[in-house]
Every structure is written in C-alpha cells, then in structure tokens.
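User: I'm putting together notes for a lab meeting next week and I want to include a structural view of one of the chains we've been expressing. I don't have a solved structure, so I'd like a prediction I can at least talk through. The sequence is below, exactly as it appears in our construct file.
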Amino acid sequence: MTPRNAFHPMRPVPLQAVLWDVDGTLAETERDGHRVAFNLAFARLGLPWRWDESRYVALLAVTGGRERLLHDMATQPQAPRTDGERLALAEELHRLKTHFYAERVRAGVIALRPGVRALLDQCAARGVRQAIATTTSRANVEALLRAQLGPDGLGRFETLVCGEDTRRKKPDPEVYRRVLDRLGLAPVQALAIEDSPAGCAAARAAGVPVIVTRSDCFRTAVFNDALAVGPGLDERAGWQPAPTGAPDGSVDLDVLIGWHARGSD
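Assistant: Thanks for the context. Below is the predicted structure for the 265-residue chain, given as structure tokens.
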C-alpha cells in the first residue's frame, strides 16, 4: 500500500492548494496602509515619532507590528525606559494602528492588487483549495477581505492562519506548517504566493514551493529560492522564468500549475 502523502519521484505532483500571503501580496497594504496607520497612532498618543517610507521599508526586516515597534523604540530617546513600559506602549500603539488601518480599508484606500481577484476566482471555479498564511493580525486580514471581497470574503479561504495563531513570525516556517496541517496536505502539494524575502524564506523552510509577486517595498529584493519572480499577477511580462504559452495576459492558474510542476517533478 502506498503511504499517504507519498509521491512518485519522477512525476510532477498535482497542485492542490494555493497559499496566500496578505500584506504586499493580496494588496499593497504596507506603504499607504500600515505605515500611515502607525503614524496616526503615534500622533494620537502625542508621540513625536513618524515613519517615512524609507524608514518603514527598513523596519519591514522585522516581522510583526508589535515587534517592529519594540525594535524602533530601542532607537528612540523618548521611549520608555523599562521593558515592561515599552511592551505596554507597543500594545497600545498596535491597538490604535489596527483601528486606523481598518478605517482606511473600509474607506477603500487599500485595494486588491491587479490580477488577484481573477486568480482567486479561477482557483475557486476549478476546485483548487485556498488558504491564508500570514503573521499579520486576524483583524487586519478580516477587514481587508470583507472590504474587497464582500461579506462572504472569508469563506473563499478554507483556513486562515494569522499572527495570533503562531508563536513565531516569518521567516520562521511555523505559519506554513500550521496551514498544511489544517489542510492535511504535504508541502509539495501546495504553492505559496509571497512578496517579501521573509515570506519566501518561511514557505521554503516549510518545504512549500513559492512564487514571488514583487510589492512596492521589495522591488529590488533578491529572491534565490523561488520558482518564479515577477512584478504582479496582472501581466506575464517581466517574470523570470517566463511563463509558458502566450506572452500576453495575466498570470493565471494554468501558469501557476506549470511553475508548480517544474518545482515538483
């Protein structure tokens, strides 16, 4: 009897599930969403700190909003002196940031990246399972999905693993391992879509093949372990390696299946 999740080494493994990152992948949330919301939270508490685009991009090397705040406080002379006070301030700032971010999402400031909605629809129509693998907070994810996909937006995804569900942030592979456990899949049966080096590293550490849609914050980042890297899902031009088939059009499900087959054969 063939063991469950055992695969013939000479045959490509069929793609069973697409695992979506959120920030930078589903939507360009960082520059005009989270960054602005953090600055509004600083202002609400009367703090003189402001994160411009270059500072925020540098801080993205630290995954997790609270972690990012604590990291930045170490450089701020006005920050509280004790670890406990800093943690309490980070919690309050993060709570306010989440509120302001949700307001911006509901106002339509943050939209899905081009090509995302079409690929979501294709996966649903053809029976490819979909899940969220992110270490941002569940409140942020739910606000975005409801605003952009309607009241049933959460139901498009078989499972959502968010920051509250993990002890360690990306690039640790925990979030992907938890998603795979919930789906009952082997890593090679899935394909991750990411935008950042930390996200790509997390997927690969879990054994999940990954493609990278570059976001505004990671236009020049180096990705050495992705099946394919490109500018977005709405166009095939600029992807390396180039998709097979017609050079025009979007990166659709057939393109994903082709890349996945290359990585699993």
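A couple of points you could mention at the meeting. The radius of gyration is 19 Å. Residues 23 and 29 are 5 Å apart (CA to CA).

User: Perfect, that's what I needed.
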